[in-house]
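Collaborator request, handled under Task 6.
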Amino acid sequence: MSVWIIIVVVALALTALGVIYLASAVGRFGAIRALSGEDKWRRRGLSLIVVAAVFVTLVLIFDYINAIVILLHTTTFFLLGRFVIYIIKIVRGKEINSKKNWAGWIAIVYTVFYMAAGFYLCNNIWQTDYQLSTDKSVGEVKVALFADSHIGATFDGEGFAKQMDVIMGAKPDIVLIAGDYVDDDTTKEDMITCCAALGKMKPKYGVWYAYGNHDKGYYSSEHRGFTAEELEAELVKNGVHVMKDDVETIDNICIVGRKDKSMERKELSELLEGVDDSKYIIVMDHQPNDYEKESQTKADLVLSGHTHGGQLLPVTYFGKWFGINDAIYGYERRENTDFIVTSGISDWRMKFKTGTKSEYVMIDVKGK
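Structure tokens returned to the collaborator:
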């Protein structure tokens, strides 16, 4: 947690510096120069008003978190724009007409297209496929995985229900939900609608769910209108297997749902004591940060989410740089265990994904 506090403090500090820099950078545009004349302080004041007005507008359109994200990207692209113009000047061997403020226009155009692409990647959902093999007698099993729906972030209950229809259209044998199904901003109405959508899914081996760090809520139940117990009751009512350090076997498949790392939980080795290792053992563990221990167990496949695929560049790599997660996205094999981390079907608060995309996962497991 201390690492994330540091990241938040750094982000706020960079935001303050970004506002100061942008106030200076905006002052280079011809319109601002014309309105302020030769008065340096009037120019800075007018530029600051423009930056503040744009920021407030972004807060009203999105929220303060997304406004900060856009501001930080804009600052970065203004700096890069200045660098590009500097390189061009060196190559040409002469100054570029500063009255045109090419660096500023490059920054604005690039920011608009870059953030638009990030919005598209976040708010649309792709299917990602994996093919795995095993020497265990499971035949062929198609596993559907999704995590981090954070209902209410990019879709409401009806939008979630439509996406479940898409997933069922791929004809999975089993559906696994690896945590952060709901969030503090999820409404009770949307929660009920989404649980009903899960109840309409009828895969051969059912729908299974394990808790994430957001599912129980960080605030009081009054904030979102339902408790963790009510969530669980609604899931069970709709036929979803709720896993809290539980193990269940169905045919030749063993499903394990670990409690989230944020909860008091058992070691995976303890959960798997007495489990028939001839079964294909699938583990849902929301946060991908117990790879070393999990790879030493009987587990065949460990499925996680939580990281959102890194969400934004360069934050994409912070989890590994700071040792928060063992993996950020994709497939990895350790010892005899396969690990897959999904980037999530939605996101938390931020409406943009860069360097990744929203997805659900289809895993074809072929055995004997």
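The cover message to the collaborator said: "The CA atoms of residues 309 and 356 lie 6 Å apart. The chain has a mean pLDDT of 91. Please let us know whether this matches your experimental observations."
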